[in-house]
Amino acid sequence: MLRFAGRRLAAAVVLVWLVATVTFVLVALAPGDAASRLTDPRISAQTRERWRREFGLDRPLPARYAAWLGAAATGDLGTSWLHHRAVTTVLGDALPNTALLAGLGLMVEIAGGVAIALVQLRRARGRLDSALSFAALASYALPTFAVALALIGVFSYRLGLLPPSHMHSLAGEQAHGPARMFDLLLHLVLPAATIGLTGLGAVARYLRGVLLDERGRLYVLAARARGCSEQRALLVHVLPNALLPLITMIGMSLPFLASGSLVVEVVFSWPGMGQLMFGAALARDVPLLMGATILMTVAVVAGNLVADLAYAVVDPRVRL
Amino acid sequence: MRTTRFAAASLCACALCAWGCRKETQASAALAQTGPHRGGRVVVAIQGDIATFNEYQSSASATEAEIIDLLFPTLVTEQPNYQESPPSFAPRLAASWELSPDGHTLTFRLRRDARWSDGIAVTATDVVFTLRAQKDEQVGSTFVELKSRIRDVEVVDPFTVRFHFTHAYPYQLMDANDGHIVPAHAWGAVPFSQWRTTDFSERLVTGGPFRAATHTRDQTLALTRDPGYWQQPRPYLDELVFRVIPEPAAQLAQLFAGNVDMVPYVPPREAARVQARPELALISVPARLWGFVAWNNRIAPFSDQRVRRALGLAINRQALVESVYCGFARLAEGPVLSTMWACNRALKLLPFDPQQARALLAKAGFVSNASGVLERGGQALAFDLLYPASNSLRHQAAVLIQADLARVGVRVTPLPLEFTTFLARQEAGAFQALLGAWEESTKVDLAPQWCTQAPGRGSNNFIGYSNPEVDRLIAVAEERDLSNVKPVLDRAQELIVADQPVTFLYEAMRLIAIRRNVRGADINAASPFFNVADWYWGT
After folding, report:
1. What is the mean pLDDT of residues B189-218?
2. How would you label B144-173 residue by residue, b for 16+ Cβ within 10 Å and e otherwise?
3. CA distance B189 to B199
4. CB-based burial of residue A192 (10 Å sphere; 0-12 exposed, 13-18 middle, 19+ buried)?
5. Is B282 helix (H, G, I), strand (E, B) or coil?
6. Residue A178 at interface with chain B, using a CB cutoff of 8 Å
7. Which of A137, A120, A136 is nearest to A128 (CA)?
8. What's the mean per-residue pLDDT of chain B?
9. The model's pTM
10. Torsion of CA A262, A266, A271, A277, to 10 degrees
11. How far apart are CA A108 and CA A113, in angstroms?
12. Are strands B433-439 and B382-388 parallel, antiparallel or unpaired?
C-alpha cells in the first residue's frame, strides 16, 4: 500500500512539473507581455522597455524558466505583477470563494441529477420519464450565461427575492455572525443554482441509463424474490452499484472546485478563480498564471485520488 | 404541525422578500432638505477592482487613477478648460506657486491645514519623498521618464517646497504636478527596493476628501468622508462606495433597479435606455480618445500616400459615428483632438467620396479584375484589418469599413485578436492595417506618435510614419513657449493630415449615467469625480 502511495505521489509531482513547464513555455510564446498593457497616454515607449528589463522579460526563455523553477521548488511562487501581492495570498483569497460556490453548485448538480434519475426510474419510459429526459437534455444544452441571466431576471428583478450579484450586499459586508452568513447564503442561491441546473441534466441522463441496466440484473430479481420492496431494492441494492461510474464523474469534477466557472463568476460578480485566471492570462501575469496552474494540476491529481479512494470504500473488490 | 411549518415558511419567505427587495442606495437620508447638506451614500459601479492604492506600483487603469485621486492630493488641480488655451490650474495642496524668472525653479507654498487621515500634517517632506519615489529606479514606476527633467526638489520650510528643473520648458507645472503626494511618515518605512512587493492597503494613510473604510477585494471599496479634510464642511456625502460589476449590462440593470447610483462608462448603444428613465441623467463629455485605421506605412501599398488617402475617402465615417456610436462621437480631423486648444481648426474634414477614391487608386496603378477586386501587378488590394476581439464597438466598425471598402474594390478581412496579442502586434508593427484608438493627455506632444522612429529612442509611432519636416516642426514646438507654439503645431498637423498616415475616424464621447437627485456634481472631461466633495443628495 505504501509503495502504491509512493508511486502515485511521484507520478503526481512529475505531472505537476510537466504541466507547469508546458504552461510556462506557452505563456512565454504567446504574443505580448505584461509591458504591452501599458497603454496610458502618459507612459512612454521607454517605460515599456524598462519594465521588460525589470521583469526579466528581455532574458532568454531558458534563463527565465530556470529562475522561476528554482524559486517555485523552494515554495516561492513570487509576486503577482497585476495585484502586487504574493501569488499565494492572491490565490488564497480567491480559492475559498470558488470552492464554496463550485462545491454548492456540484452538490445541487449531483443531488438534483440523482433525484431526477430516481423519479424517472419509477415510471421508466412513461410520460414523466420522457418529459424529465427532455428537460434534462435541455438544461444540459442551455448556455450557462443564458440560465444565469434568466434566473437573475426572474428572481432578482421581477420577483425581487434574491440578490443579482456579489457575495454580500453592502449591509451584509459590514454585518457579523449569523446575519453575515444569511446574507452570504442568499447570494449563493442563484449562482449555485446556475451551476447545478446546467450540470444536473448530464448526471440524470447518465445515472438513469446505469440504473436501468442494474435494475435488470439477477441480484435485483433475487432480492425482489426474497420479498424486498421495489423502492428498497432500488435504494439499497441498485443505487450503490450504479454509483461507481458516478464516483468517477464526481472525481473528474473536483478540479472545478479550484478552477470555478468564468461565466458564472463574471455574471454574478463572484470574486473567484475563474475571473482571477482570466485576468492573469490577459495581463500576461506569469507568476500568477503559474501559481494557478500548479494549483489546478494539484486539484486534478487530488480529484483522481479521491475518486480512487471512494471506489475502494464503495466497492470492496477494489481493495484487493 | 402543518400550521407551524406554514408559519415558519411564510416567515422565511417574508425575510427573503424584505432582504431581497431592500435597496442598497441610501438616497432617503437627505430627501427633505435642499441645498448642500451632509449625509447619504453614492454607489458607483466599476468594471474591475483597484489593484493597489499606491499608484507608483501601478500601470494605472483609468478607474484606479480616478479612485486614487479621491484618496491622495496633488499639488494643484488641472482644470478642464483646455479648449481655447493650455489648461489652467487651481490650488489644491498648494495654496500658491511661483516660477523663477529664469524658469529653472518652481516654488510651491502648501496649505497649513492639510492633514493625513491619521492627523499628521501634510508637509514639504511628503512632497520631496514623493518625488524621490517617482524617480527611483527600484520603485520602477511609470513616472521615472515623466520626471526626468526635474533635477531635484528641496524643502525650503515645512510648508514650502522648491522644484529644480534641468531647463525651462512649457509643461513644467504639469510635470511637477503629475502624480499624487504620498505619506512619507507612513510609507517611508518601506524601503524603495520593497515597494513593488508591498501591500500598501495594510499601511493606508490617505489625504483626500474621503478615506478608505473597507475594501473587499473584487467586490466593494467603501470610502467614508474624512472629517479632517481641509475644505470643511465638504465632502457632503458620508460615503462613496465602488461596487465591482464586471458586465456593463449588469451595471445598467443594477442602476435601473436602484442598487447603484452611477455608472461611469455607459456603452453608446445603451444611451437611449438611460435617457428613457426620468430619474437618471446621461452626461456626455469628450473622452480625449480618438479612433483610427492605422495603415502600416512601411509596406506597400500603404507606403503610397495616394492609397492611404483613397482608403480614407472610401470609408463613410459619418455613418460609422452614427451607427456604431449612436451619435455619441464626432468625426476626427487630425492628430490633435478638436477639444484641445492646439487643434488646427482650419483643417478640412476628409470627405466620404468613393468616386475620388477610385480615381486615386487608379492613379496609383490599381485596376479592377474580373471579380471586381482591384489589383496591381497581379496582386489584389486585399488585407487583414486587426482589432481587439473584446471590443464590440470596433468589431462593428470593422464590419462597416469592410463593406465600404468592398464597394471600391478593396477586399478587407476583419481579424479579431485577443487584446494583449493585438497590442503586441501593434507595437511590433506586425500588421497591414489595424483599427485602433489612442487616448491623448492634455499635454500636447506630437513626438511619440508622429516623429520618425530612431534606433535606441522609444516611440509609439508603430505605423512607421516619417516626414522630416514634421520631425523638425515637432522639435521646434518642444522648445517653444506655449504662448507662441500654436502656429508650429498647426503646420505640423496640416502636414500629417495631408500625408494621411492613418485614417482619422472619430473622437469618442464618454457617457456617464447618474441619478438626477445627486446634486452639485460637475462631471466634466477632467474626471467624473472632479468636484465630488461638493456632491449631495437632493429631493
Report:
1. 92
2. bbbbeebeebeeeeebbbbbebeebebbbb
3. 13
4. buried
5. strand
6. no
7. A120
8. 90
9. 0.85
10. 40
11. 8
12. parallel
Length of chain A: 320
Strand partners, B481: none
Dump pLDDT digits (tens) for A138-179.
888 889 999 999 999 999 999 999 999 999 999 998 889 999
3-state DSSP assignment of residue A166: coil
> Residue A186: which of B19, B146, B178 has the nearest Cβ?
B19
Q: Does A82 touch chain B (CB under 8 A)?
A: yes
- Sign of the dihedral defined by the CA atoms of residues B426, B431, B434, B440, in that order: positive
Find which of A16-25, A41-50, B490-499 is predicted with most confidence, using mean pLDDT: B490-499
C-alpha cell at B77: 488641480
Looking at the complex, does the CB of residue A161 fall below 8 Å from at least one CB of chain B? yes
CA distance B146 to A42: 8
Of B21, B222, B441, the CB nearest to A42: B441
Place of cell 491529481: A301
Is 80 exceeded by the pLDDT of residue B526? yes
3-state DSSP assignment of residue B43:
strand
All 3 cell numbers of residue B113?
A: 491645514
pLDDT tens per residue across span B272-327: 999 999 999 999 999 989 999 999 999 999 999 999 999 999 999 999 999 999 99
Beta bridge partners of residue A52, listed in sequence order: none
Kindly determine whether residue A31 and residue B253, on different chains, have CB atoms separated by under 8 Å: no
Cell triple for B241: 462606495
- Which residue of A lies nearest to B241 if distances are taken between CA atoms? A170
> Average of pLDDT values for B495-512?
96
Name beta bridge partners: B413.
B384
pLDDT tops 90 at residue B116: yes
Residues A144, A146, A147, A151, CA torsion sign? positive
d(CA A294, CA B132): 39
Which residue of chain B is at minimal alpha-carbon distance from A82?
B51
Q: Which residues of A221-249 are buried (b: 16+ CB within 10 A; e: fewer)?
A: eebeeeeeeeeebbeebbbebbbeebbeb
Distance from CA of A185 to the nearest CA of B (A): 11
